[in-house]
Amino acid sequence: MRNFDFAPLYRSTIGFDHLSQLLDSIVQREQNQPSYPPYNIERLGQDDYRITMAVAGFTQEELSLHSEHQTLKVRAEKSPDTAERQYLHQGIAARNFERAFQLADHIKVVNAHLENGLLHIELRREVPEAMKPRQIPIQNSRDLLMAAK
């Protein structure tokens, strides 16, 4: 396991002390998380992203998405197969899973759809107006004195 030294970061930033905890939890989660099902993460634009997961064999009712506290959880619970089957080879992995994705600030899930065995989850960064950069006018002291009179 790698250890990161965030001391240089703390000298020039304010309010990012949670960053080391976040990175540690991601490293821990990735070490314990299985690789099933396979997925892609795409950047579609400056503020738009897509997660595509290969979930062949699962129905829409067996899949669920939950977004809470900057974490997106994708869960699948396969209904028990009651049919009597005799497999000569069983290579299709239709097992239950739960995969978690850590989301950055202001990332929202805007859409999810299932198509051809692929679950597409659309995400968008929606920064509130109050947090967007704004120009602050600089006044000179003469104007301030005139406004006070």
Report, as a whole number of angstroms, the end-to-end distance: 66 Å
Order of helices and strands: HHEEEEEEEH
**Estimated structural class:** alpha+beta
Mean pLDDT metric: 81
List the helices and strands and how they pair.
Blueprint: H1 7-12, H2 18-32, E1 39-43, E2 48-54, E3 63-68, E4 71-76, E5 97-102, E6 107-115, E7 118-125, H3 141-148
Antiparallel strand pairs: 1-2, 2-7, 3-4, 4-5, 6-7
Features of this protein?
149 residues, alpha+beta, Immunoglobulin-like, 2 domains, four-stranded antiparallel sheet, three-stranded antiparallel sheet, 3 helices, 7 strands, 19% helix, elongated
Give structural notes.
With 149 residues, the protein is α+β, with helices and mostly antiparallel strands. It folds into two domains: 1-32, no CATH class; 36-129, Immunoglobulin-like (Sandwich), CATH 2.60.40. It is built from three helices and seven strands; from the N terminus they run ααβββββββα. The strands form two sheets. It has a four-stranded antiparallel sheet with strand order 1-2-7-6, with no helix packed on it. Strands 3-4-5 form a three-stranded antiparallel sheet, with no helix packed on it. A hairpin with a 4-residue loop joins β1 and β2 (48-54). The radius of gyration is 24 Å and the shape is elongated. It starts with 6 loop residues before the first helix and ends with a helix.
